[in-house]
Here is the input.
Amino acid sequence: MIKNNLNKYFLACIFCIISVVFFGQTKSSNIQTIDGKKYYIHKIQKSQSLYSISKTYTVSLDEIYKLNPELKTQGAKVDQEIKIPFGVSAPVVITPTVSPGIPTIVIDTNKYVVHKIAKSETVYSITRHYKITEKELAAFNPGITPALKEGQLIIVGERIRKKSGPKENKQTIVTPEAVVNNFSVVDSSLFKPALKAKKTKYKVALILPFRTEATLALDMNELVKSGGSFPMVPGLAVDFYLGFKCAMDSLISNDFEVDLTLYESDDKDSIKLDLIVNDPGFKDLDFIFGPLYASGFKDISQKAKELNIPIVSPITQQNKILYNNIYISKTNPSQFTLMESLADYCIDSLVNGNAKIILMLLSDKDKRELSFVTAFKKYYNEKQKALGKGIQDTITLANGMEGLKAAFKPNAKNIVVTLSSNQVFLTDFTTQFSMFGDKKDVTLCGWQNLTESDNIDQEYLNQLHFTFPNQFNLTNTEAYNTATARYKEQQQTAPGEYFYIGFDIAYYYLTNLKKIGPDFIYRLETLPFETNYMRFKYARPDYTTGFDNRGVYIFKYSNYHIQKTGWK
Here is the structure.
């Protein structure tokens, strides 16, 4: 084990050769008054990007483009002088407040469907939920901004009018805070992809958290003596790289070459992120994979968008990174996508005949559990309604074990869903439910982390036919026998999960790049594919966002083993 760790250590050192130079940036001392307004006159230096300049002066790129419109048509040039607004500090989000002097806005609820913004909801999630485009949302809500507020009311569609019957004179008065602001209808020309020709050689970058400095500082002799493990984050970065490289090498041919560049990233180090985007070779990249985590990915993807470079998020589950950037695709389904897949599986495969589905709320103080419970119930009932099912087919909500006993339907199949991640509550509930459900026809559904708890008896999960969604095919790693054997020969241990993730992501994207060329990235919804460990099934709500992978597997306990169901 230690020998493997040492090998990883040396690999990390060898492969993380990153040639970047940081150019310190300060504000210009050249301040001029033009047409009565003060501006910094900034001379663009070599390797400076507009993005880095905007960060130096804490102004938006839109503001720089507005003052220097030639940048949009001619691009930025070294030694070019541009105007930057003087005296602008960090952007401030202004929240409108209601005052008696401001007229209220009225929404006719007879005509429109109104949605109240819940915590963590985004424009992306709302447009996806109501199956409308962002342009349609903006048209319904002139002045709306992406910075949605919890409790805010917005229009999400028009009601279908009945042909007869008296009209209900009902209106909801909405304050300016609800529908407000400075928001414009989306200009579709801003989201027109930059098409590129097919080539025989591509420049590809991997941005991973190798954390070279930290690993170099390790006392490996002490690590061996103490029986410690190689640090987790750089270890998974090396595994991802090795899997990626393995798949990439298998695709190389006379008509397909990949020039792979490695960048080291650390989400907490903005200087390193700036060094990456300012690297002279960055602008020539054809494809970018990483960074792994959301905060670093946000910065890099913004620069990739400016340069029209496709970028792939391999790990993060946050859908908000897709907003307003058509060059992003995200391979890891969000937690809400997993939840919706579980609901679909319940409807498709579990709830039939006189079966009953009960949704548990183990702690009404757990806001995360509460948000999933609310979303699951809403999604499930709407799907049932769309299928023409009646009120008897809707979900029943139960609070705690006593609530479950009250809702339980005797002499019928009961499907019980818990979406809590609290191990204490889950352990107690699973134990009680296994005793209550003994010799009854029951199925327990929930998150995969329930299978990893040391405090939960696997016998209970087997007895309850525990069923859960997962983004990876947990039961199929043996399909990589050749690649795994090569890894073991080099590392003298079995690969970790990130080896398979790196392999499958590289195989999917580079195969399409080889066969179709770089423009495949704009029609991922037409290219579903299943590798050994991942399922690629992309979708996006409209043309303004990136692609989200909605490929999910459903597993269940059977005969004391986790087995993949045939559901897709």
In short: Residues 1-6, 8-24, 89-104, 164-185 have pLDDT under 50 and may be disordered. The longest strand covers residues 201-208. The radius of gyration is 27 Å.
